[in-house]
Design goal:
alpha+beta, Hect, E3 ligase catalytic domain fold, Hect, E3 ligase catalytic domain, 18 helices, 13 strands, globular, HECT domain-containing protein, ubiquitin protein ligase activity, Hect_E3_ubiquitin_ligase
């Protein structure tokens, strides 16, 4: 068995009822422990859904190889979550150890050092982390990078006191914007920003408003600017009515530099722990993680086209060419006219038949998600990773990254009722979605304030705090809350 695994470049197997053995690339079997000083505190995969766990040289490939014997289906990655892992270990400290091991070349799985030489970090086995745990790791990484950027700024400022040639710098990235020109103002600042400054904590100032940004102003900034940038009326993104999703438009007149800055803004939102409303398909997050989009992604973005492609693949007869009358081309709209694009060399002369129909579908998917928008996405990708790149993203699955970016709508109302009655949700949180960490991460506070019934409730979005005057009846309370919700943009000091 070891020889067979080695032939497939498999370098590690955890096995046994407790799944506690590892096979390194030298063919040596060793036990895996979370920490060497704790006896038999083990990395475990519950044995009721997997017979073995497999790694290759580049990434964990369990999802491709482990099959449920009863159903014949590949086991989904979320079945390998160990939700209690955050209770068992300090995952923040584990992540720091993992980063240090990566930096110094101490890679247990790849045989650069003996397993017994260093403690095994759980980050080496990211499949056991659920999306919430991975979000905690990304936030840990962001805090570390922010602190390093702040420390560097402080050192430079101290040096500037003694060396006049060294300019003092702000330890934060400051964006001063006007609401009526939020895109132009933000882009002007970001174009001049150095890469190191993207790692600083972001502070936003709206011209003419008194609010101090402790988080709430930043939330509203991202809400407003993403609404503007992603609006299909600007032609940078195409809106698909059937799916209500958007994708990069290959007909845009905008320079790729603008897509680079949009990627920077998306990265800044994640880096600064802010949910953004991105109506992109899962394919975006696959590509950000260097994974290939598939027919399933086409079905999500273009349901009718996706179903047609599936019908082509499922057609049982041999007369595919005569029935479907297709060749390796795609017809696209070009400012009111139609244009035929070849999917492969000499595609117009290559008919789709039963033997090459999978190749046709793959080429079609590749054109939609890759070839037609390559320069635009590459610019977006570069901007995103300039802010939010790093080893921590390697831990995420596309669905997990998507959930972290846009939040979710899995409202646990019973949990929320412990703290808050949801009349004022969107204004208090600057979003109608909740963070991936769930409602338990939102500590919502209502406090009574002075004033008469003519006063409105006041929402402090930075702190999830609601000031509620003492109204005499529920109808007045309802009326004032609705009035406050209708005026849900802008900041002032109270």
């Amino acid at each position: 068995q070891v020889v067979a695994l080695d032939a497939q470049n498999i370098v590690a197997v955890s096995c046994g009822e407790a799944h506690t053995l590892a096979l390194n690339d030298k063919g040596q079997l060793k036990q895996i422990y979370l920490r060497q000083d704790i006896n038999k505190v083990l990395f475990m995969v519950p044995c009721f859904f997997a017979q073995f766990c497999v790694f290759d040289h580049d990434e964990f490939i369990l999802l491709d190889l482990v099959v449920n014997e009863k159903t014949g289906q590949i086991i989904q990655y979320d079945k390998f979550y160990i939700h209690e892992v955050q209770e068992l270990i300090d995952i923040r400290n584990d992540y720091i150890n993992w980063v240090q091991q990566q930096a110094y070349g101490m890679d247990v799985n790849h045989g650069l050092t003996e397993v017994a030489d260093i403690p095994v970090t759980i980050c080496t086995y990211p499949f056991v982390f659920d999306a919430q745990a991975k979000t905690t790791l990304l936030q840990t990484d962001a805090v570390l990078q922010m602190q390093m950027a702040i420390d560097q700024a402080h050192r430079q400022n101290v040096s500037s006191l003694f060396l006049p040639v060294i300019e003092s710098v702000n330890p934060c990235l400051i964006l001063v914007v006007r609401r009526e020109n939020i895109v132009g103002d933000a882009m002007e600042v970001l174009r001049k920003t150095k890469n190191i400054d993207y790692k600083k904590p972001l502070k936003v100032i709206f011209v003419g408003e008194d609010a101090v940004d402790a988080g709430g102003v930043r939330k509203e900034f991202f809400l407003l600017i993403m609404r503007e940038l992603l609006d299909p009326k600007y032609g940078m993104f195409r809106y698909y009515e059937d799916s209500r999703l958007i994708w990069f438009s290959d007909k845009t007149f905008e320079d790729s530099d603008l897509f680079h800055l949009i990627g920077v803004i998306c990265g800044l939102a994640i880096y600064n722990f802010t949910i953004v409303d991105l109506h992109f398909p899962l394919a975006l997050y696959k590509k950000l993680l260097k994974k290939k989009p598939s027919l399933d992604d086409l079905k999500e973005l273009m349901p009718d086209v996706g179903r047609s492609m599936q019908q082509l693949l499922d057609y049982p007869e041999d007369n595919v060419e005569e029935t479907f009358c297709l060749n390796f081309t795609i017809t696209v709209e070009n400012f009111g006219a139609t244009e035929v694009k070849e999917l492969v060399l000499n595609g117009a002369d290559t008919a789709v038949n039963k033997q090459n129909r999978q190749e046709f579908v793959d080429a079609y998917v590749d054109y939609i998600f890759n070839k037609s928008v390559a320069s635009l996405f590459d610019a977006f990708h570069a901007g995103f990773h300039k802010v939010c790149g790093g080893k921590v993203l390697q831990l995420f699955q596309p669905n997990e990254l998507q959930a972290m970016v846009i939040g979710n709508t899995n409202y646990d109302w019973k949990q929320l009722e412990k703290y808050f009655t949801n009349y004022h949700w969107k204004r208090k949180n600057s979003s109608d979605r909740i963070p991936i960490l769930g409602m338990k991460s939102l500590i919502l506070v209502i406090q009574s304030t002075g004033g008469g019934e003519e006063y409105l409730p006041v929402s402090h979005t930075c702190f999830n705090l609601l000031d509620l005057p003492k109204y005499t009846d529920k109808e007045t309370l309802r009326s004032k809350l609705i009035q406050a919700i209708d005026h849900n943009e802008g900041f002032s000091l109270i």
